[in-house]
Write a structure and sequence with these properties.
Distance between the termini: 46 Å
Oligomer: single chain
Radius of gyration: 19 Å
Order of helices and strands: HHHHHHHEEHHHH
Number of domains: 2
């Protein structure tokens, strides 16, 4: 399992970093980040819909994939400037996704009456949470952080690096030294020892990124505090997803990423870490 996790990370991490690098090219108008956030939201929301089906719900197939990317697509229009062609394409895409979801709801209501409304509502909530939290990556990208090129994307890069480091450290430390369960009622596999190492890793990565990217950079103590806040938020996001899986009786959200499980299993930590960093940066700007 560990070897499979490492191989998946060796493929997936460079792919994400390449997209973030490409997003730094002005001519691409932040489309790479939109594709990344929207793609994760679509796959994650569809995984949530599939898990809900296992709990007795029966939302239409691909409903989650249609609803998931809507919030990132709408938030993209907060970008300072974009071309008319991009505006037209994304507007048509939003209209298409909304229309598909609406038609799916009508067809489902005709077949199943009020139960279809309940199931549709559950998928909307799940897709809104996943897509809404991932859309904050775009808001982070649009912040004027005063960083020099190519470090303008540092807040988004920080979210990925901090949550990846936290997850990896928590997993490895928990396997080797984990003795005390963190929250056995929600996630029996998570340990206090693993959580502590995860927080430390988040603090180290956050401090390193802030020292490199931000000029003038905050104090080391402030950087460590931000890293601690991101680590706590990341672990909370992980527990939220674990609680959801436990309620629907699933071990993993899917199997799309070998060794890691589903999209939600891999990116659940950043769902709460992203808004946490966004609020911190807004507060720092005064």
């Amino acid at each position: 399992m560990l070897r499979t996790r490492v191989l998946s990370a060796a493929v997936g991490i460079p792919a994400v970093l390449v997209l973030l690098f490409l997003d730094g090219l002005p001519r691409l108008q932040n489309i790479p980040l939109l594709l990344l956030a929207g793609g994760i939201a679509a796959l994650g929301a569809e995984e949530a819909a599939v898990l809900l089906r296992g709990r007795g719900c029966a939302p239409p197939k691909w409903l989650g994939a249609s609803l998931g990317p809507l919030v990132p697509l709408v938030v993209y229009f907060k970008r300072p400037a974009y071309s008319d062609a991009v505006l037209l394409v994304l507007t048509l895409l939003i209209v298409f996704l909304v229309l598909m979801a609406f038609l799916a709801l009508i067809a489902d209501v005709v077949k199943r009456s009020w139960r279809a409304l309940r199931d549709f509502g559950l998928v909307v909530v799940a897709a809104g949470y996943i897509g809404g939290m991932l859309a904050i990556l775009l808001l982070l990208r649009y912040l004027d952080t005063g960083a020099r090129v190519p470090w303008g994307m540092w807040p988004v890069l920080l979210i990925f690096l901090a949550t990846w480091a936290m997850d990896a450290a928590a997993y490895l430390a928990g396997r080797k030294w984990g003795r005390h369960r963190l929250c056995p009622a929600i996630s029996p596999g998570k340990t206090i020892e693993g959580a502590i190492f995860g927080l430390i890793s988040s603090m180290i990565i956050t401090t390193a990124v802030l020292m490199l990217a931000v000029h003038p950079h905050p104090s080391v103590l402030a950087a460590e505090g931000i890293g601690l806040a991101l680590g706590v938020a990341g672990e909370a996001g992980d527990l939220v997803e674990s609680l959801f899986k436990r309620r629907v009786g699933a071990k993993d959200s899917g199997d799309i990423i070998p060794g890691h499980g589903g999209i939600l299993d891999r990116f659940d930590s950043m769902l709460l870490a992203a808004p946490t960093l966004y609020l911190i940066l807004l507060a720092m700007r005064g």
